[in-house]
Amino acid sequence: MATSSKTGAGKAAPAPRRSDKAEGGTDATFVRQLAEILNDTDLTEIEVERGDLRVRVAREVTVAAAPVAMSAPGVPMMSQPAPPATPTTAPAAAAPAASEAPAQRGEPVKSPMVGTAYLQPQPGADPFVSAGDRVKSGQTLLIVEAMKTMNPITAPRDGVVLEVLVGDSQPVQFGEPLVILE
Q: Cα–Cα distance between 116 and 98 in angstroms, integer?
């Protein structure tokens, strides 16, 4: 079955051979060329229109940070293996130290969301808590800002702050330990 398409001038073009066409009548070589352009330029989508023919080629891109955001609660984000596309030795060397610190003793208070940790109520003020402070259940330990909303992170029980694991204005992930309570 031969098909023809209109060119930009409105004239019918001769029908190409069946072997050059994909099932829908699109030139397979043309689509392959578009796919090569995607790969060569690191684009995720390309769309071309020739007369009444419109071809869109897209590919799905997985962001390396996405699996990290979905890590299991209680597992520090640095302990996740580095993605193969970005081999680095510094985070891998730091991972054992980061994963051992919360497990030594005490109970970690984990971030319930992705955001930015703030250790004091406003810039220049004293921090909510410091290592060695006694805290009561419900007392604010720090704030995690997410989407312009300040969310207080409170002590789940009475205890003593052994260590504050995050710095002021530091990005934090869901499930990341923030403070260790004894």
A: 19
